[in-house]
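Intended use. Records like the one below are meant for learning the mapping from a protein sequence to its folded structure. Do not use them to infer anything beyond what is encoded.
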Amino acid sequence: MSPKSLPISIVNAFTTDAFSGNPAAVVFVDKQQIQDTGLLRAVAKNLNQPITAFLHRLQDGSSDPGVVAFDIRWFTVVRERPLGGHGMIASSSLLFSQPEGSAAADAVKRIVYNTRSGIVLTARKTVDGWTELTMPVATLEPLVEDDKLKAVVEVVRRALGREVRVKYAGVGVGVFADRLFVEIDVDDDLAGCIPKPELFVSLVPVETGYAVNIITAASKDTDVAFVSRMFAPVNGLPEDHVCGSAHCMLTPYWAKKLARGDGEMLAKQVSVRGGDIRTAWCEAEGTITLCGQAKTVLTGEIFL
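Structure written out for the chain above:
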């Protein structure tokens, strides 16, 4: 009997380079496997990528031949995540690049993703070849309790390795409730910080509970609206090279602050690998658009 195998690709999201952006493993599974949390967790741990996206093609999806639908789940090496922006950029770019007659050939205009959290996400290919996601806006609430704010500022300074000036600190609500959001001064040079991500664990979990720590600043580059970095050591990601879902918070925040309305902004994640994101706030719909490019660097099979 031949061993069971699953098709796998490694795709760098938010880049066209083989050595930058954020790697994601994309694994196609069947109807039973997508429900097998133990299997998916074991595969993700074995692959040891920042995120592994598991996809199951739904045969009874939209009647529109231009739309394909998938169930999708995301795992880091230690836990399942409710949302994975760079994993979706990787998955969608891979599907849109498939040859004629495959699951997402040229005739496919849109991909629909059904998530475990109940959020339905969509992807399309733009006219200039980027992949565009539609994602939910994350509501931010300012951190106003003096003791908690003081503790957050202290930990952020220690973790970034310098006395940064915190201009705003807030937390997400709902599915984003585990996320801390901090803006620092543009002159604090977020890209130049040499972080110690393990120090963000000081924020977890007794009173603050922030597993995901998003740090952002304005950009001195006039072509770039803002820059950011994301740290999530308790999720198995000391630093996430380029975090798509962080822009569910970043995009409306900066669109309002910079008075950009629904205009598209160029953003950069300034980790060592780095990546480029085009994003816009669709206030009336309560969504953002997130655009990125991707580079497939490996294809093959994983044997079970």
